[in-house]
């Protein structure tokens, strides 16, 4: 873990502080819905406290099936609604158009944006000089197995940080960074990371099928192998992944034959390095497009 990323020591509270406090989720697409699933499953928010704004009828229906209220535009929200937290889960390219309509809640609300690459200075121009946090979650949040990296602007007080952590903690671990550019790094590692792992599963399954294992068994084995290895890697933090790898690798055995290819000229390391750099640079460049 980079020295700048400090995990928040936050054991799950018995009673989440977000309970009874209206929470507004703006955008309920892939990531917004993953967050919503995580919050509700962990009891971090009660369905009756959550209001979703989402223009897609299909996605509103999906949200409503979890018991929350959903409408298609900000203007349809009850005039008296005073949200305590507003989570902006819309695309970076559309946030400048969408966010300003939510500035009217600034008297009661703190804002969390999950938009990749959209810096707090830009968000402050859209919403005002108020408490704004950037969070970079990932889709395993829907199962409470996600990682979220958070940066808070200077207007964010301790109570607001705690409230946001209480909510995000429902989706898995929460880590604060104190330099905003580290959100770009986190985006490239944990935000986009699940896609790299899914690609690995796809590739492994394709190879398994090529070896004659059959489509279903091929996919089952690829999924189970990644899930099992990840569970092992998580089960004992004193064991470095390299040590776990060595335990699989018999001298002059089959794993050694495969690793000789993957480790040759640091091929995999370099490929992943290029990929992660591209994601980090893309995150940084998105800020110039907003
Ligand atoms: N998909 C992922 O794994 C992650 C995504 N993010 C960030 O989350 C944000 C959303 O990404 P996705 O969920 O993947 O995209 P998405 O396209 O699935 O979701 C965006 C949603 O915003 C809705 N929307 C459009 N206009 C709206 C408006 N005026 N008011 C309310 N909602 C509106 C869309 O209908 C759509 O459902 C992006 O900024 C992305 O950078 C961050 C971490 C991970
Ligand atoms: O691909 C993207 O831009 C978003 C941010 C991290 C994951 N998905």
UniProtKB/TrEMBL annotation:
Q: Tell me which InterPro entries the record gives.
A: 6-PGluconate_DH-like_C_sf, NAD(P)-bd_dom_sf, P5C_Rdtase_cat_N, P5CR_dimer, Pyrroline-COOH_reductase
What range(s) does the Pyrroline-5-carboxylate reductase catalytic N-terminal domain occupy? 25-117
Q: Which UniProt keywords apply?
A: Amino-acid biosynthesis, Cytoplasm, NADP, Oxidoreductase, Proline biosynthesis
Q: Name one GO molecular function term.
A: pyrroline-5-carboxylate reductase activity
The source's superkingdom equals: Bacteria
An example GO BP is: L-proline biosynthetic process
Cite the annotated pathway. Answer: Amino-acid biosynthesis; L-proline biosynthesis; L-proline from L-glutamate 5-semialdehyde: step 1/1
What cellular component GO annotations does this protein have? cytoplasm
Cited HAMAP family:
P5C_reductase (MF_01925)
Please give the family membership noted in the entry: Belongs to the pyrroline-5-carboxylate reductase family.
Specify the protein name. Answer: Pyrroline-5-carboxylate reductase
């Amino acid at each position: 873990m980079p020295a700048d990323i400090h995990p928040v020591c936050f054991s799950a509270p018995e009673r989440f502080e977000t309970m009874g406090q209206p929470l507004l989720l703006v955008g309920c697409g892939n990531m917004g819905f993953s967050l919503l699933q995580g919050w509700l499953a962990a009891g971090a928010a009660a369905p009756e406290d959550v209001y979703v704004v989402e223009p897609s009828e299909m996605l509103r229906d999906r949200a409503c099936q979890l018991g929350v209220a959903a409408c298609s535009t900000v203007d349809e929200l009850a005039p008296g609604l005073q949200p305590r937290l507003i989570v902006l889960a819309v695309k970076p390219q559309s946030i400048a158009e969408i966010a300003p309509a939510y500035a009217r809640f600034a008297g009661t609300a703190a804002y969390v944006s999950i938009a990749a690459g959209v810096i707090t200075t830009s968000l402050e121009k859209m919403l005002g000089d108020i408490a704004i946090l950037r969070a970079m979650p990932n889709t395993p949040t829907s199962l409470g197995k996600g990682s979220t990296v958070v940066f808070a602007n200077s207007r964010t007080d301790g109570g607001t940080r705690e409230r946001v952590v209480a909510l995000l903690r429902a989706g898995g671990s929460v880590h604060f960074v104190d330099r905003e550019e580290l959100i770009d790094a986190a985006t490239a590692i944990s935000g986009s990371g699940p896609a790299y792992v899914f690609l690995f599963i796809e590739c492994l399954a394709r190879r398994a099928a090529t070896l004659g294992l059959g489509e279903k068994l091929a996919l089952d084995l690829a999924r189970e192998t990644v899930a099992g290895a990840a569970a092992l890697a998580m089960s004992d933090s004193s064991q470095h992944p390299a040590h776990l790898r060595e335990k699989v690798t018999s001298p002059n055995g089959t794993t050694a034959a495969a690793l000789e290819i993957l480790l040759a000229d640091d091929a995999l390391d370099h490929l992943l390095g290029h990929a992660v750099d591209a994601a980090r640079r893309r995150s940084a460049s998105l800020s110039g497009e907003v």
